[in-house]
Write a structure and sequence with these properties.
Layout: H1 3-13, E1 17-33, E2 36-54, E3 57-63, H2 69-83, E4 98-102, H3 114-127, E5 133-151, E6 156-174, E7 177-187, H4 199-209, E8 214-215, E9 219-225, H5 227-239, H6 244-248, E10 269-271, E11 294-298, E12 301-302, H7 309-314, E13 323-324, E14 333-334, E15 338-341, H8 348-353, E16 357-362, E17 366-370, E18 375-379, E19 382-387, E20 390-396, E21 399-403, H9 404-410, E22 411-414, E23 419-427, E24 430-438, E25 441-448
Parallel strand pairs: 4-6, 8-20, 9-16, 15-24
Antiparallel strand pairs: 1-2, 1-5, 2-3, 5-6, 6-7, 9-25, 10-11, 10-15, 11-12, 13-14, 16-19, 17-18, 18-21, 19-20, 21-25, 22-25, 23-24
Length: 451
């Protein structure tokens, strides 16, 4: 059965809406741990996911060949009928899109041997072999993904994207003290992105510098957050709360705050999957909606949430192109793409010069958030003690905590130096490529856990 025939068949069964997603993916994974190759794999996958809406209930079935698509429609329709019990109908009145898009890589990874890719990873490992470095982890990933989405309203889109990313995670040791640093680079490009790559050396040098750092003090301080830490904050603590499914589930501190001031005027937050080359970029989301730039916050005001087709219907809003799935085996859910704090006007040196005592925190290791309460805690990679406008000495054991909206109101300077950082975001068991970003930001009375 052809994909278009599956749409007609699903409607004949009585479905309110039918969607078919076809995916072809080839990828490579390489992992080096202290010089030992722990992974060196390649694979190609083909899947078709059929999603059916019936009286407010969704059903999803997936298959590995076109010959099984009819059976997938039958299964999806049966699941939709079961899940529809007690549900309110969903109004199916969504915009449609057509088009074919492709990112052309200058150096396509799929034309390069695994031996050459392993050589790239080993180059970063060699860079990291500095004095006092004890452990080195290098991870390389690439993928070529072609996705097509068609639905019963008339959407018919196709896109092909290349993905490359490499990580360096380095541990240093001296006199009983172990420190670590993490560096990465990635995007929707080819291997040209890795020209003059130095993530191994950067991570190693920061890990070594941290060995002489003093434990961070605990308490509330004026703080400067580096772009990576500020980007993780805006993604994790704020961005997830701005996903419309969280709002509908009563799991967002931003519920009911549209049009309200959620931060100072200098703060604007953008989600933009249309920026060429970034790791979270795409032309169409996984429901076939055209990707677009949107202000979540503009001049401190909450402008809107990120939406899928379903959440846009329930909240009487336009779809925003933020429905994403890890693959065709999973349903699209509301996800961020490239989410960042927009640039301001301050120079880093200007921020620094006005601080009598404070902390400069940079990098990000881990953390947790409670979007429904607007609470967060993040462990930074490291920091500096600031005294009379100068960086005095390095700090370790740097952790920040607080209330998301309180922090946005306590920002008093936004830098002009936005930096983007690639990674994967997990939600409901699905991981998708994203970019977090921010300039340096200065925050009053930020709570540090210290040691």
């Amino acid at each position: 059965m052809e994909l278009e025939d599956a749409i007609s068949y699903g409607l004949d069964l009585g479905a309110d809406f039918v969607e078919v997603r076809e995916e072809v993916k080839s990828d490579t994974g390489i992992k080096l741990v202290d010089g030992v190759v722990r992974e060196n794999s390649t694979g190609t996958f083909y899947n078709v996911g059929v999603r059916v809406l019936y009286r407010g209930g969704w059903g999803l079935a997936t298959v590995g060949s076109l010959s099984e698509v009819k059976e997938a429609v039958d299964r999806a329709f049966k699941l939709a009928k079961v899940s529809s019990r007690g549900n309110e109908p969903i109004e199916v009145d969504w915009p449609t899109f057509t088009g074919r898009e492709r990112v052309k890589a200058e150096i396509p990874p799929w034309e390069i041997s695994n031996e050459e890719k392993l050589k790239l990873a080993r180059e970063q490992e060699e860079q990291a072999k500095l004095d006092k470095v004890r452990n080195i982890n290098i991870v390389y990933r690439d993928a070529r993904v072609r996705r097509r989405v068609i639905n019963s309203l008339g959407t018919n889109v196709e896109q092909e994207l290349p993905y490359v990313i490499m990580y360096a995670y380095v541990f240093s040791y001296e006199d009983g003290v172990t420190e670590s640093a993490f560096e990465s680079k990635g995007g929707t490009k080819g291997l040209e992105l890795f020209k003059d790559l130095d993530i191994g050396e950067k991570a190693a040098r920061r890990a070594i510098e941290s060995l002489k750092a003093k434990p961070a003090p605990a308490g509330a301080f004026t703080a400067i957050l580096g772009p990576k830490l500020a980007g993780v904050f805006i993604h994790e603590a704020f961005g997830h709360a701005a996903e419309a499914d969280s709002v509908l589930e009563g799991m967002s501190v931003l519920e009911g705050k549209l049009g309200e001031k959620v931060g100072i005027e200098e703060v604007s937050v953008i989600d933009d999957p249309t920026i060429p080359g970034l790791f979270g970029s795409y032309f169409f989301d996984d429901e076939g909606s055209r990707a677009r730039r949107k202000h979540i916050v503009k001049d401190g005001i909450l402008m809107g949430y990120m939406h899928s087709l379903e959440t846009s219907s329930k909240l009487k809003a336009e779809p925003t192109g933020n429905a994403r799935a890890m693959d065709s085996l999973n349903p699209p859910i509301v996800r961020m793409s490239n989410t960042f704090i927009d640039k301001g006007t301050w120079k880093f040196e200007e921020m620094l010069s006005e601080i009598k005592e404070g902390i400069y925190a940079f990098g990000s290791l881990y953390g947790y958030v409670l979007p429904e309460k607007g609470q967060f805690m993040f462990k930074a990679e490291g920091g500096w003690w600031i005294e009379r406008g100068e960086l005095k000495h390095r700090l370790r054991e740097v952790a920040i905590a607080g209330l998301t909206l309180e922090v946005l109101h306590n920002i008093d300077a936004v830098g002009d130096d936005v930096a983007m950082d690639p990674g994967f975001c997990g939600k409901e068991g699905q991981y998708v490529p994203v970019t977090t970003g921010a300039p340096h930001i200065r925050v009053k009375n930020l709570v540090f856990g210290g040691r």
